[in-house]
Amino acid sequence: QVQLVESGGGWVQPGGSLRLSCVASGFTFSNYGMNWYRQTPGKERELVAYISSSVGSTNYADSVKGRFTISRDNAKNTVYLQMSSLKPEDTAMYYCKRNAGAYWGQGTQVTVSS
């Protein structure tokens, strides 16, 4: 079955960096676009970044452009989210999601505070 397992979250001071990872299994990873979403309590999940399956084209939410980078390693069935210049408003639970179907990971918490 499809499984997505995120890791790499934690606490970081404003201006710091984190790299999130999402390891996929149960499907042919290279065939699917992948997404990173985030959610804070009481709000809907927000699409943060997307990467396509083949040529690796990317899209970002305006709020993270220039600070976050999504990438993938198809040999490792892994999608990454490199987050830099983190702000307190980036604090959220971060989830990866596969395109084509409601397949989500369990999430990894990112907390940005001093």
Structure class: mainly beta
Approximately how much helix is present in the residues? under 10%
Total helices: the number is 0
Q: Which shape, going by the Cα principal axes?
A: globular
The unreliable regions are none
What assembly state would you assign to the polypeptide chains in this entry?
single chain
**Spatial separation of the terminal alpha carbons:** 40 Å
Largest sheet geometry: 7 strands, mixed
What's the β-strand tally? 11
Q: How confident is the prediction overall: mean pLDDT? A: 96
Strand content: over 45%
Mind telling me the C-alpha Rg? 13 Å
Order of helices and strands: EEEEEEEEEEE
Topology:
Blueprint: E1 3-7, E2 10-12, E3 18-25, E4 34-39, E5 46-51, E6 58-60, E7 68-73, E8 78-83, E9 92-98, E10 103-104, E11 108-112
Description:
By secondary structure, the protein is mostly beta strands. The chain contains no helices and 11 strands. The chain has strands at residues 3-7, 10-12, 18-25, 34-39, 46-51, 58-60, 68-73, 78-83, 92-98, 103-104, 108-112. Strands 2, 4, 5, 6, 9, 10 and 11 form a 7-stranded mixed beta sheet that branches. β9 and β10 (103-104) form a beta hairpin. The chain is globular, with a radius of gyration of 13 Å. The termini are far apart.
Summary of the model, kept short:
The protein is an all-beta fold. The chain has strands at residues 3-7, 10-12, 18-25, 34-39, 46-51, 58-60, 68-73, 78-83, 92-98, 103-104, 108-112.
Summarize this structure as a short list of keywords or feature phrases.
114 residues; mainly beta; seven-stranded mixed sheet; four-stranded antiparallel sheet; 0% helix; 50% strand
